[in-house]
Amino acid sequence: MPTFSTVIPAYNCENSIAETLRSIAAQTRKCEQVIVVDDGSKDNTGEVVQNHFPWVEYVKIENSGVSVARNTGFERATGDYIALCDGDDIWHPDKLKVIENCIVDNPEINFFFHDFYLFGEGVPVDKSAVSEGSRSIFPFFRETGLRYKDMMPGVKNFKPASDEFDAATLLTGNIFQRLILGNVILPSSIVISSKLLNSLGGFDPSFRKAEETEFFLRVAKYEDLGFVTLPLAGYRIGNGGLTSNLHDLLEHGMRALYKNCVDDQQIYEKYKDTVDLAIARRYSRMASVNLRNRQRTDAWRNIMNGLRFRLFEVNLWKIFIASLLPFFVLETLSGSGKKQ
After folding, report:
1. Structural element, H or E, at residue 4
2. Measured distance CA(179)–CA(188) in Å, rounded
C-alpha cells in the first residue's frame, strides 16, 4: 500500500494551525509523516505546533513565500504520495482512506484532487461541495457554466471507504486547456505522487502569488488528473487574503500563462485561441482594478496589451469606454450598482 507525507506551509497561523493538525490526526487512515514548514511567522505558530503536536516534524525558515515553504517540505517528505494542506484549512477524517483506494485502483494517475466545503467565522455550517457552480470560489465555473464532468471524460463510480458517504465518482482526464482559462484546483485537496513531483521540481520559487496556477498548469500539460467528487476538505474563508492583493494576484497569474503557454511555442500554437482569450480576459480584470484605484494610465496600458491578443474582446472595449469617464462618475455608477 502507498505511504503518505503531508506538507503544511504556515505563516502566522497560531489561531488555525491546531485545528488543521487535529483534522490530520483524526484521519481514519493515519498519515505516516506530517511536516509543518513555518514560513517565518511572527506570531506563536511555532509554539503551538511544538508544544501540542510533538508527532509533527516542524521546520522554520526565513520568510520566503509559500512556494519555498512547500518545496522545503517536499525535500523532507519520504512518502510515496505527498498531500498538501494549508495552515488554515482542514480535512475530512476519511480523506486519506478514500484517496488511498483511488490510488490503488488507478495506479496510472499520479495527481488527485477532490471537492471541498467552506467554513470560517460567520459562515453557516454547510459541508456540501462548493468547488463548482454559483457558490464556487473559482471564477472559471461562474464564467463558463462548466462542471468537472464536462472537462474530464473518464468516469468511475465507486463505493468510498467511508461511513459518511454512500457513493462517489472519480473523474479523470487532461484539463490543461481548461486550466488556461482559470484555476479549478484547491491546493489543500491535492495528492501527488513523489515520482511526478520530483520530475516537476516542485513549485516555482519566483512565484509568491498565483504559485498554484503556475504549478497546476505545469502538471496538467502532460498528465491526466483524477478528481474525487466528495468534499474531503474544508476551505477557510473570511480572512480577506485574496481580494486585498487582487492586482498582484492577477499579474502573477499572467506570468504563469506567459511561462507555460506563450513562451512554450509548441503549446501556444496548439492552444492559441484559448491562450489569447485567457490573456485578454486577465488584462481586462487588471484594467478594471486599475480604474477602481484611479490608475487611468495603467488601465490603458493593460487594455492595449489585451487587445494585442484579442482585438474584439468585448470586456476590454467596455473598460476602455469606462476609462474615458471622470472618476467621480465611475465611482457614482459603481456605488449605484452595489446598492441595487
Report:
1. strand 4-10
2. 17
DSSP for 106-162?
Answer: -TT--EEEEEEEEE-TT-----S--SSSTT-S-HHHHHH---HHHH--EEEEE--S-
Sequence-ordered alpha helix ranges (H) in the chain: 17-25, 45-52, 66-76, 95-105, 139-144, 148-151, 176-181, 194-200, 211-220, 246-257, 265-270, 272-292, 296-309, 314-323, 327-339
Report pLDDT digits (tens) over 300-311: 999 999 999 999
pTM (2 d.p.): 0.91
Number of residues that this document lists for the chain: 340
DSSP lists the bridge partners of residue 9 as 37
Q: Is 62 exposed, middle or buried (0-12, 13-18, 19+ CB in 10 A)?
A: exposed
- State how far the Cα of 104 lies from the Cα of 100, in Å rounded to an integer: 6
pLDDT for residue 325:
92
Angle CA 151–81–104, to nearest 5: 70
The residue to which cell 480577506 is assigned:
240
Q: Which helix (H) or strand (E) holds 228?
A: strand 225-236
Under DSSP, the state recorded for 206 is T
Residue where the block lists cell 492577477 = 250
The packing angle between helices 246-257 and 272-292, to 10°, is 160
